[in-house]
Amino acid sequence: MKRLFNIGLLLVSASLAVGCFTKDDRNYQYFPNMYESVGYEAYGSYETFENTQEAQLPVEGTIPRGWKPYGFENSNDGYQNAKANLSNPLPYTEDNVNKGKELYTIYCAICHGDKGDGKGTLAQREKILGIPAYNDAGRAITEGSVYHVMFYGINTMGSYASQTSEEERWQINHYVMDLKAKLNGQPQRDFVSENEIAEVELETIDNHSQHEDEASVNEEHESLHTESEEQSHEVN
User: Fold this and answer.
1) Given pLDDT bands bounded at 50, 70 and 90, which one contains residue 111?
2) Please, what is the average pLDDT of the chain?
3) How far apart are CA 151 and CA 158, in angstroms?
4) Residue 214 predicted with pLDDT over 80
5) Which residue spans adopt a coiled-coil conformation according to this UniProt entry (predicted)?
């Protein structure tokens, strides 16, 4: 009899529990404020925020997801610095060059021309004049200057930082430097093999590990030196 009573009580409890469930509601919430967030109107005034302003600036130094900071400023000094010191980090592979050619045709050829001679469609129609060839001695473009101009733009050329990723800009860079070499009558560079890329990556990892080991040893020496000085002071 007691067993039947327990079974009946269990069935009634289960029925009540199931009966309280509905697909239209969130039902039982363990932490309600994890489900029911407080909504704020954009540009509204709330005591919760500094100066009661809902629209807050990001924390200083915030970097947008998927974006990498570019360390050269948009000025003539920044241009000259990039021109002298910035180089292409992408390996010179056939895939990178082919992708660079494809992107160049989309974004650059209409002004700079398929050959990089400054005779693109817009130049021929006299919509934009004075576009120099990539082998123009007065400009003496480098990997760094090409990337800098693609990132910021210059004169009548706008920035392509929003249309292209960092990798894509460096792929275009490879192709632009190939066009410059071709205009100068120079042969195309040899592509880097997969084995050479793997060797460079392995060497980079080894160098990084070596620097970490050296830093660890230096830190240990500094720690021992500090302890020795403290003990010396205690004795004195």
Assistant:
1) very high
2) 83
3) 9
4) no
5) none
Record the tokens describing residue 76, joined without a space.
Answer: 């003539």
**Quick one: three-class SS letters along 85-151?**
HCCCCCCCCHHHHHHHHHHHHHHCHHHHCCCCCCCCHHHHCCCCCCCCCCCCCCCCCCHHHHHHHHH
> Given a cut of 60, is residue 104 above it in pLDDT?
yes
**Tens digit of pLDDT for each residue in 25-67?**
666 667 777 777 777 788 888 888 778 888 888 888 888 887 7
Tokens at residue 211, please? 């620097």
Tell me the three-class secondary structure of 13-73, residue by residue: HHHHHHHCCCCCCCCCCCCHHHHCCCCCCCCCECCCCHHHECCCCCCCCCCCCCCCCCCCC
Vertex 133 angle, CA 131 and 136, to 5°:
115
- Stretch 206-215: mean pLDDT, rounded? 55
Instruction: Tell me the three state secondary structure of residue 177.
Output: helix
User: Alpha-carbon distance 158 to 37, whole Å?
Assistant: 42
The residue that leads in pLDDT, 79 or 231, is 79
Side-chain-facing half-sphere of 16: CA atoms under 13 Å: 6
Backbone φ and ψ of 157, nearest 5°: -85, 125
Distance CA 13, CA 203 (A): 67
Structural domains present in the chain: 76-183 (1.10.760.10)
H or E element at residue 9: helix 2-19
* pLDDT at residue 218 is higher than 70: no
What's phi and psi for 6, nearest 5 deg?
A: -65, -40
